[in-house]
Structures are given as C-alpha cells and as structure tokens.
Known about the structure:
Blueprint: H1 3-18, E1 30-33, E2 36-39, H2 42-50, H3 64-71, E3 79-84, H4 89-98, H5 102-111, E4 113-118, H6 123-128, E5 136-140, E6 146-151, H7 156-170
Parallel strand pairs: 3-4
Antiparallel strand pairs: 1-2, 3-5, 5-6
Helix pairs in contact: 5-7
Amino acid sequence: xxxxxxxxVLLIFSxxxxxxxxxxxxxxxxxxxxxxxxxxxxxxxxxxxxxTSAVFAHSPSDSFSNATTSFTNSTGQPVFVYFRSDTxxxxxxxxxxxxxxxxxxxxxxxxxxxxxxxxxxxRNITRLYGVRGTPHEIFLYPNGTEINRLxxxxxxxxxxxxxxxxxxxxxxxxxxx
Length: 177
C-alpha cells in the first residue's frame, strides 16, 4: 500500500472541509430563546421567507426607496437574524428584556422570519455578514439583501422602534429608515 500518495490527498480534503463542517445544521432545527422560537439555519429561513415572495430586482447598492418600490409587490416576510453566543452577558440581558416583552414578541412572530446564529458554532455565516461582536441584529429582505443592522446591545424602545420601522418599510408605507 502506498501511503505517501494518500497523505497529501487527505490533507487537501481536510483543509477544504474544515470551514464547512461548522455550518451544517438541520434545515428545520429551531431554538427557543425566552418566548421566541428561532430557526438556526439562515439558508432554510431565507428559503421559507422566499417561498411566499416574489423575486426582487434591486441590488444592495440601491437606495431604500428603490428597494421599497421593488419589495411592495411581495408577500414574503423580512428576516430578523440575531447573532449571539452562550457566553455573552449583553446577549443574555437583551434576550431577558426584549424577548420577554409581549409587544416585541408579537411583532417579531407576526411579521418576521426569525433566525439565531451562534457566532462560535456558525463562524462562516458570522464572517459573511461581518459580525465582530455580540449581540448583533441584522434585518434582511427575504432575498437576503440587508435592510438594517443593530450592532451591540440596544434597549427595548430602540429595538421596538426599529422593528416597527422595518414592518412599515416592508409593507410599503415608508420610504426609508
């Protein structure tokens, strides 16, 4: 048996797949945080959000008013992506305050597809969105285009104002955030 030929091949495969394995999460897996159930796979959540929406004809460089014009014909929900870690004290504070607030929970459940990303277990998606600290909230159109982001801890009123603005934006009642 010629092991010397197989060693480089095994090394190449291990390097190629080392960054991919941390993102494999069951498509429909959900996680409960306080009063909310979150998807744990952004791809599955975007697929769900897109399953009831039209394809958008705008790019990330478009202004919010152009994006709104394209989006108003859609019936898909925007996606709320919450980047967190189990060891983050500010994440726990945000979760205890915001995800137990009945008004916030109601708006998120009725108007958004909600996803949580563990920044340590899902490093590739964390890097893709340029998240460098937690908590970090990103709001996306169903096609994955970013609407807004909230880096760091925010109080209930700021978070509530933001999600209300995004609901109005995505319903076509507001031109910009």
